[in-house]
Amino acid sequence: STPSGAATSVARQSSGGGYWLAAADGGVFAFGTAHFYGSMAGKHLNSPISGIVPTSDDHGYWLVGKDGAVFAFGDALSKGSMAGKAIAAPVIGIAATMDPRIVVIIVRSR
Fold it and tell me: pLDDT tens, 48-79?
């Protein structure tokens, strides 16, 4: 399937055997050995998706919107987001941490 929104981010599996593309409209596309765990395609988004990052075991991923909304799929844990809160600049990405319960959203510097 082809993204209806522009591809905004790519995330590689830790094994290197596959990857996911995230589209601005919330669509997620799995390639190679990467599995599809869900997406926000067809659902209302307040802001376009700007990043995707896989879980450490590659059995899930998080999407982040430019407004700081975080969406969890597969075995990714949902611990809240910055949606609806004041942020200094649009979110341009998301990064995993050593703690599988925590992701970091990345904002554009001024």
Answer: 999 999 999 999 999 999 998 999 999 998 87
> How far, in Å, CA of 27 to CA of 36, rounded?
10
Give the sign of the dihedral formed by CA 15, CA 18, CA 22, CA 27.
negative
Distance CA(51)–CA(26), nearest Å, equals 10
List Cα–Cα distances, 28 to 22, 86, 87, 89, 109, in angstroms. 5, 27, 25, 24, 26
What's the CA angle centered on 46, arms 27 and 18, to 5 degrees? 25
The residue-averaged pLDDT of 28-53 equals: 96
CA atoms of 17 and 79, how far apart (whole Å): 28
Taking the C-alpha atoms of residue 77 and residue 62, their distance in angstroms, rounded to an integer, is: 8
Q: How much is the pTM?
A: 0.86
